[in-house]
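Format notes (please read before filing issues)

Several people have asked whether sequences and structure tokens are stored in separate files. They are not. Every record keeps both together, in the order shown below: the sequence lines, then the token lines. Line labels are part of the format and must not be stripped during preprocessing.
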Amino acid sequence: MKKKTTFGSSHNLTGEIIAEKQIIQTFTAESESLSGIGVEFGTYKRKNAAIILLEIIDFDDVMIKSCALNSATFKDNAFHIFDMPCILIKGKQYILKISSVDASIGNSVTAKWGRKFHVNEKFCIDETPKLNGELSCRFIYDDEIEVDMNVNRSMGLVSVIIPILNGSELLGKTLQSIKQQTYNFLEVFIVNDGSSPEESEKIKQVIGKFPDLKIELYESEINKGACFARNFGANKAKGEYLFFCDADVDLDKTIFQKMIQALHIHTDCSWAYCNFMWGNKQMSFRPFCAKELRKRNLCSTMSLIKALDFPGFTPDLKRLQDWDLFLKMNEKGKIGIWLNDYLFTAEERQGITSNSITWEQAVAELRKKHPTLGT
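Then the structure lines:
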């Protein structure tokens, strides 16, 4: 399977990539076999095509691998994969250089960069270092993960709880991504939270296409809200771990494997959380910090939570239920472990959670329950 290491975010632009410009990003090889590199580009009113060149160079100025693509194939605000199959030395630092063979002013192709995640790496535009930034890119390695079913079972059962309100057209993709997990000691609970009769029938039809998954379906005739649906599923669950999964996501096949391993290594932690993609947008978190959690939510609902430490979602909250959950857990002395990896993709659409109140109103309601919010 493929292993991805993601750099940066998409908050800034490098400026037009023309023949005289060089973009430099150092990186440390996390595996021996590199497959490719994805770079996020903005194309913006492109007037003409150009050749964009990626090169991997070692610190002795020896060329390891290069690949060129025509920018006419690029989509705006999207990652483009350069095939860069080569053998690297794991743990050794290399240089990634982006330039253009023939682009002139007006080509309007620019790469994206954002906040820095890797302390020991350097990022420059021409010769100017960007001390707090990294190129928005992904290094894709060939990295097989061997899974032993006996190891799976010894690490614990994962209960996947999926609330759904209509939206049957995307449920199949979510269930398929659960079926393909490398960690497969799972049970799945789908809570139909007041879908229309037509949608309820379609949901049953989708579930019927996955006879190999252990799925239990529960139905409510009226919509009671996301908190009810998730708490109901948690009360039915038998697993040592809970994973509250939206019905419109595509999970990386290693998400449960990586999260459960992280919790077995970091035994003081009660939940594991990761970055994710919202459409083409990177949604990045940061290492757990209780002070930071009081200022902003550090985790998504789709985290792996130890069942014994789960306090339940607050039923009367219309928004920010996930933030409230992790605040409640932290106030009981529980902490999380961050996986700096993008392990699921969510559709850019309104989900089961109500947005009937504004963000400001939701924060005000949350502050009533957590007076130290913002301190």
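For reference, the curators noted about this record: The chain is about 20% helix and 35% strand. Residues 144-151 have pLDDT under 50 and may be disordered.
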